Each structure stands twice: as C-alpha cells, then as structure tokens.
Amino acid sequence: MMKTIFSLLLFACLLTGCVLNLVTGRKQLSLINDSELRLMATNEYKTFLSGHKVLSSGTSRDAAMVDRVGARIANSITKYYDSQEKKSVLEGYNWEFNTIDDKKVINAWCMPGGKVVVYTGLLPVTQNETALAIVMGHEIAHAIAKHGNERMSQALVQQLGGMALEVALAQKPQETKDLFMMTYGIGSEVGAMLPWSRQQETEADQYGLIFSAMAGYDPREAIPFWQRMSAAGGESPPEFLSTHPSDETRIRKLKQFMPEALKYYTLRN
Ligand SMILES: [Zn+2]
Predict the structure, then answer these.
(1) I need a surface site. Which of 23, 45, 75, 231 has the fewest CB within 10 A?
(2) Distance from the alpha carbon of residue 196 to the mean position of ligand 1, in angstroms
(3) Within a 10 A sphere around the Cβ of 194, how many other Cβ atoms?
(4) pLDDT for 134-177, tens place per residue?
(5) What residues act catalytically?
C-alpha cells in the first residue's frame, strides 16, 4: 500500500514538476492552484466563523492581543518578503485574525490567504503575548510554506487518483470539501486532522521562530512554551498537541534554529 502511494506521489511529481517553495527552498508536490485554494479558504473561514462565538477586540483583551500579535507578524513578514523581492510569497493574502471563545479547545490555525483562528483555550498554555506570537508565527509559517497545498495535493493523489482540484470539486464536491476540512483540521464531523509531517513541523518551527522574532517577540520563549504544551498532554492530549506532536526532537531543533532567529530579534530591538 505505502509503496503504491509513494509511486503515485512520485509519478504526480514527475508529471507536474514539483514546485519550488520560495520560503523554504524545498520542492513540493503542488497540484492545486493557490488562488483556488485561497478562495476555498475564504469561503470555509466565513462559514466557520458564523458557526462559532467570535470575541470582539473592542471588548475582549484576549481578542485585542490576538489582533495585535497577528498584525505585528503580518506587517513584519510582508516588509521582509517585499525587501527580498519575493512579494509573491504573500500574494493574495488578506489577513484576518479571530479569537474563538471556547476554553476547551487548545488550538490555533492559519489557512491560506492569512485566515487565522485562535481559541481562548490556548491562552492558559501560552500564558503571555510572546508565547502566543510563537504559536501564531508557527501556524502562519505552515500557511506560507504552503503545507496545506502540499498535504491536500497528496490526498488528491491518494484518494482521488490525482484529480485536478476543479475537476474534483465538480465531480466529487463533498469528498473534496471533506479533504479540505481534514487538511486544515476544521469541522470535527469529518474526523480528526492528520498530524503535520515531521518535515513540515520542522519548517514551521524554523520559520515561525524567525517570524515572531521579526515582529519583536523573543524567540527563546518557544522552549518553555513547548514544554508547557507537552505538560498539558496527559491522557487526552489537546487538539494542538495531537496535530503537533512534541518531543525531544522538537526542542533540540528549536535550539538549533535559535541563533538565526535571535539575529532577527536583535536587529529589531
Ligand atoms: Zn505545526
């Protein structure tokens, strides 16, 4: 089975030519047009928000903090990729940050196009604005490193034989929508989100640290934050932990990435 999947993925890669990611410099399977994916994300984000209790930043200090952190990261990375002449990294991004009032859910995510959600359940684990920036930087890194596109492309190959997204949407609309929901971990009715791959996690950690540092948040807070998150595990691990397994490898890699991230932090401070 695994061998077949691997051959299919390899074939899809050869057929389309994997796309070089401008953020990570890694070649990724990318069968989905980014603008189509952003459109889908925008629609699903709207539907998601209408079904949940969204806090207003005018009346909630938590929501105001999420907005503030989000805006600082978004502005810093926009400036950075502009200066690197890589404007296309954030092409079509129209940032939105929303805080969901649900203390039971320890989670946060970012969909393509900059559609971000933070649940209030995450805040007792982050404990401070810097750790929140670490999580949001990590989730934003998943989005702009196009990990969702990569994962959904793999799923299109495995489950729908490499069908193009527009064909899949036209012929199998429900299955395609379910794939999207599972890719981004929204809508519990379609089952749990698969954990990100180790490679995707490592990239999100590396760039997430840099993004929070660029925004003026001390990246060193990542170590105690991930230790707190692991400790929040226990018998029923929080949603965030089940899709972001935390172990010694993560902490070791974070330490390895720290000197580079600190350069951006020093520049900024
Ligand atoms: Zn992650």
Answers:
(1) 231
(2) 6
(3) 14
(4) 999 999 999 999 998 898 888 888 877 777 777 888 888 888 88
(5) 139
So what's the pLDDT on residue 267?
84
pTM above 0.85, yes or no: yes
Please state, in angstroms and rounded to a whole number, the distance separating the CA atoms of residues 206 and 137.
Answer: 10
Distance separating alpha carbons of residues 138 and 196, to the nearest angstrom: 12
Buried b (16+ CB within 10 A) or exposed e, 27-40: ebbbbbebeebbeb
Please tell me the distance between residue 142's alpha carbon and the centre of ligand 1 in angstroms: 6
Ligand 1 center–CA 200 separation, angstroms: 7
- Quote the ligand 1 centre to 212 CA distance (angstroms): 15
| Positions of the chain with pLDDT under 50 | 189-190
